Amino acid sequence: MTQILDWRPEPGEVVEFEPAADREPVRHDVPASFFQRAHLQSSAANRAAGRRQSPWVALAFELEGRADLDALTDAWQGLARRHEAFHTWYEPDSEDLPGFRLPPDSLTVRPVRVGEFTSADDLRAHLHRRIDERTTASRLGFLAGVVRRDTTSTVYFAIDHSYTDAHSLALLFHEIRARYRAARGNTSVHLAPVPGYLDHNRRERERSASLTAAAPELAAWSEFLATGDGGFPGFPVALGNETGELLPGTRLQYPVLTSAQARAFRAYCAEQGGGFGAGAFAALALAQWEFTGNDVYRVLTAVSTRAYPRLLHVHGWLVNLAPLLFRLPASPAFAGAITAAQQGFQTARAAYDVPLHRALELLLEEGSISAIPAIPPMASYLDGRAAPGSRDYLHADATILTGPDNASGVSMWFNWLPDRADLVVSMPDTPEAAAGVPKYLDRVREIMLTASSRHQRGADR
Fold this sequence. Notes:
By secondary structure, this protein is α+β, with helices and mostly antiparallel strands. The chain is built from 12 helices and 17 strands. It has helices at 34-48, 69-82, 120-135, 166-184, 197-209, 219-226, 259-271, 276-292, 334-349, 356-363, 393-396, 431-460; strands at residues 2-3, 13-21, 26-28, 56-64, 88-90, 99-101, 107-116, 142-148, 152-160, 247-258, 296-304, 319-327, 378-383, 399-402, 406-407, 411-417, 420-428. The strands form 3 sheets. The chain has a 7-stranded mixed beta sheet with strand order 1-14-4-9-8-2-7, with helices on both faces. It has a 7-stranded mixed beta sheet with strand order 12-11-13-16-17-10-15. Strands 3-6-5 form a 3-stranded antiparallel beta sheet, with no helix packed on it. Helix 2 packs across helix 4 (166-184), helix 7 (259-271) crosses helix 12 (431-460) and helix 8 (276-292) crosses helix 12 (431-460).
């Protein structure tokens, strides 16, 4: 996970893959999901106010040799026709967010040569500008391209975050490479039709419409909001943002554990009745207690809403934020913290399909819904080792790109990948955050490393 300003693509010939359709789009009646609505409306407000933003996510990876444009064209066209996320959209500048779709077979893709770049900075600036331009266009608002060189070529893709998530980008990495190899070898790639994200949106609206503030599905949210000072939890160290406004952000990337250390850490957590994710949250909670004396840990955590196997192949933003809450045992120690975190995480997971915005709409006082941060502080755990093609991430230099960070609080992503486990942190770019956040995270990492070493020592006996 890399900010585009920190990305250094090698120069080369830039080619874009331009989508077009020979038929006009038609309206559909499926409302945007709650997260899509909040995201698209926030983006529209920023545009109207003239604020620069980058509400997109992107993927870049390497292909060996000089990319075959015919094969890549075929790959992008096949993918765009197969997945609803690339031929349906919502008009973000209309208040009711009307939805549109194109018939998939009307969609074509053609390569457009942009030119040769000899400077990495000029290339990055060009790609940043083009990504911002294309992903803010509602109709076919994505950008696909390649930087061609004789030895390696960099494939890149970007789309508004409303239509993708990390799981979707992993699917794209795997499918584009499979389609590319098949096209180059004049063979067929057999990929079954997949459901679209609009069905997921429709089901979300139908389920959430019947919820009331007293619904048992909202019990975890009620407890979360009633604990401590209520509302959203603060961070254990000062961030220099007492008003909670959205500020320019900065990003830290911590290599937490090697592959062997991560496996040992997971084994230690299993001995305490928890998983890797529970161990990571337990380390966050224990460090919080050491810094503040607060033995109750609260955070929003990202959970997948891909509840059924058929949803695993859907491109879209199928993610929710769930309320994670647990109390450390008396005389807190890491082993007991893992058990408490696992129980809290299971409770949070039970609320995976209650949309954040709908829960707060029902539980907060009237008008308080506007107080939800544009970027809610959160902590995410993702095991990326089982994703299709994940063994090739390192060799292909697969990278998720984002625009320049904005932050009001701290967001954290624990990622367990085939070669390591790391922690990516987005925080306000303030002197207070720069001084305090790394100290807290260093302690979190120390707790995790100690547990990993403890298990390794026990295994060696």
